[in-house]
From TrEMBL:
<keyword id="KW-0408">Iron</keyword>
<feature type="region of interest" description="Disordered">
    <location>
        <begin position="1"/>
        <end position="21"/>
    </location>
</feature>
<dbReference type="GO" id="GO:0042542">
    <property type="term" value="P:response to hydrogen peroxide"/>
</dbReference>
<dbReference type="InterPro" id="IPR010582">
    <property type="entry name" value="Catalase_immune_responsive"/>
</dbReference>
<dbReference type="InterPro" id="IPR002226">
    <property type="entry name" value="Catalase_haem_BS"/>
</dbReference>
<feature type="active site">
    <location>
        <position position="134"/>
    </location>
</feature>
<dbReference type="InterPro" id="IPR024711">
    <property type="entry name" value="Catalase_clade1/3"/>
</dbReference>
<keyword id="KW-0376">Hydrogen peroxide</keyword>
<keyword id="KW-0560">Oxidoreductase</keyword>
<dbReference type="InterPro" id="IPR011614">
    <property type="entry name" value="Catalase_core"/>
</dbReference>
<protein>
    <recommendedName>
        <fullName>Catalase</fullName>
        <ecNumber>1.11.1.6</ecNumber>
    </recommendedName>
</protein>
<dbReference type="GO" id="GO:0005777">
    <property type="term" value="C:peroxisome"/>
</dbReference>
<keyword id="KW-0017">Alkaloid metabolism</keyword>
<dbReference type="Pfam" id="PF06628">
    <property type="entry name" value="Catalase-rel"/>
</dbReference>
<dbReference type="InterPro" id="IPR018028">
    <property type="entry name" value="Catalase"/>
</dbReference>
<dbReference type="GO" id="GO:0046872">
    <property type="term" value="F:metal ion binding"/>
</dbReference>
<comment type="similarity">
    <text>Belongs to the catalase family.</text>
</comment>
Length: 497
């Protein structure tokens, strides 16, 4: 990695020493003007590099803060998984994290009301393990075909190039399974006060496995040791204007001053034989598993103790994917997880190139040997020298059939059944948001929810669409829909007056 120049002078990128770097070579005329020359390589490279110093920004999760730190095992869970980094109390693995908003662009404000993505790359002895989580336990949708649409509806209108409340709500009234996450988004947790005070959730169901072929379904929860802290809607809007990088700087400054944020990692587990007795479809990302039936089991802790020295190299070029897993962790039949396992590496190949895993920030610390993936733009290192570049060779020293080095075998699970459409919405989709509204939120939290969401819905231009939004929330709870309608009507009256 290019860190700092150990030399007392500047050079061209090819190493040629420069007498000075602050002037172009010019043919001066007697009136003081000057013509620059094509032979001025330093000038040409300086200008050309500047025009090319952006890479495509992430289509979602573009604005982020990042840090380094470690994951430490605090509890024995050897009955659930053989993953090396999760076994052995006290064992530490280094990690890289990136915490983002979702919809807005790289230059946008941190405090806008949004879901926060929370990606964590744990560098283990068995390869990298990525957790690509959110700060809310559920997602808007359970069918991946809606993934681009939900994101576009939160981004910019194709004509006005501006966010658009009609577009946002038009999507959600037509995808009412999103009611659960909307309840979080417009609640207090939609505007965190600090990234040190958020929770993280896998949302997805994973399989944590043992070498004997046994496995459990697992959801992962991360709790901020300093507790949840949030700001009001008004405060989030004020900070978006006055201090757009508020959350990024808060995390950076806390780590810089030695105030290292820490988080507890826990799991909920379900044995495959118990799926039938589970009240929800465990592969549906719009649902939580009730704590009363599936209590949290602590696993470890995470501490962020190091700031990036260079944001672009370490955080912007970091590439996370839910498909990056170690032996002992496997994907489940969660359709959203399956789709993200394709979409995320595909996005990285587009953004960073086909060899993105070789970038220093992404490179595994365990040995890598995959000589059938070679060449391509920005091949770093020796590119496997003269090792065979094809499968099924008997040429020494590598036999591709020699699996003795890895004893890992994926678990067996037989999946069969009819082809179904997963978007059908029933009252099941409103039970959990109803529980959140009636059983979890305090009266003050309910009042703030109504305040926050009505301000947003008041931005909808079409009367009939606002009516549909009230109906959506009446399905969660009649009084909730009624209260939202009353609050929106009052706001619209105020605007008219
Ligand atoms: P519980 O009463 O056992 O759990 C409720 C959970 O809600 C708490 O443990 C806490 O989760 C979370 N919570 C507390 N205050 C708020 C808030 N102001 N805004 C959002 N979440 C809050 O009941 P259940 O497990 O049966 O869940 C009931 C409802 O609570 C669910 O339908 C869901 O909407 C919500 N919930 C459930 C979670 C789960 O994984 N079971 C997680 C988060 C929310 P935490 O400790 O993770 O902050």
């Amino acid at each position: 990695m290019i860190a700092s120049n150990p030399q007392p002078f500047y050079t061209l990128a090819e190493g040629t020493p420069l007498p000075r770097n602050d002037t172009s070579v010019q043919v001066r005329n007697k009136n003081g003007g000057g013509l620059v020359l094509l032979q001025d390589t330093q000038l040409i490279e300086t200008l050309a590099h500047f025009s090319r110093e952006r890479i495509p920004e992430r289509v979602v999760h573009a604005k982020a803060a990042g840090a380094r730190g470690y994951f430490e095992v605090t509890h024995d869970i050897s009955d659930i998984t053989d993953a090396d980094f999760l076994n052995g109390i006290g064992k530490r693995s280094e990690l890289l994290t990136r915490i983002s908003t979702v919809g807005a662009e790289s230059g946008s404000a941190d405090t806008v009301r949004d879901v926060h993505g929370w990606a964590i790359k744990i560098k283990t002895n068995e390869g990298n393990n990525d957790w690509v989580f959110n700060n809310q336990p559920v997602f808007f949708i359970r069918d991946p075909i809606k993934f681009p649409s939900v994101n576009r509806s939160h981004k910019r209108h194709p004509a006005t190039h501006s966010t658009d409340a009609d577009m946002f709500w038009d999507f959600h009234v037509n995808a009412p399974e999103s009611a659960h996450l909307l309840m979080f988004l417009f609640g207090d947790r939609g505007t965190p006060a600090s990234l040190r005070n958020i929770n993280g959730y896998s949302g997805h169901t994973y399989k944590w496995t043992k070498k004997d072929g046994s496995f459990h379904y697992v959801k992962i929860h991360i709790h901020a040791d300093a507790g949840i802290k949030t700001i009001t809607d008004e405060e989030s809007i004020r900070l978006a204007g006055e201090s757009p990088d508020y959350l990024t700087l808060d995390l950076y400054n806390a780590i810089e001053s030695g105030n290292f944020p820490s988080y507890t990692v826990s799991i909920q587990t379900i044995h495959p034989k118990d799926i039938a007795s589970c009240p929800v479809n465990i592969f549906d990302m719009t649902k939580i598993w009730p704590h009363s039936l599936y209590p949290l089991r602590p696993v470890g802790k995470m501490v962020f103790d190091t700031n990036p020295r260079n944001y672009f190299a370490e955080i912007e070029q970091a590439a996370f994917s839910p498909s990056t897993m170690v032996p002992g962790i496997e994907a489940s039949a969660d359709p959203m997880l399956q789709a993200r396992m394709f979409a995320y590496p595909d996005a990285q190949r587009y953004r960073l190139g086909v060899n993105y895993q070789q970038l220093p920030t992404n490179a595994a610390k365990s040995p890598i040997y995959i000589p059938t993936e070679r060449d391509g733009a920005f091949t770093y290192g020796l590119n496997y020298g003269d090792d065979p570049n094809y499968l099924n060779t008997a040429i020494e020293p590598i036999s591709f059939h020699d699996t003795s080095a890895s004893q890992y075998k994926p678990t067996e699970e037989s999946l069969h059944g009819p082809i179904v459409f997963t978007s059908e919405v029933t009252d099941e989709d409103f039970k959990q948001p109803r529980a959140l509204w009636n059983d979890v939120l305090s009266k003050d939290e309910q009042d703030r929810f109504i305040h926050n969401i009505s301000r947003n819905i008041a931005g909808v231009k079409r009367d009939w669409l606002r009516e549909k939004v009230y109906e959506l929330f009446r399905k969660v709870d009649k009084s909730l829909g009624d209260r939202i309608e009353e609050a929106v009507r009052a706001l619209l009256e105020e605007t008219k007056a």
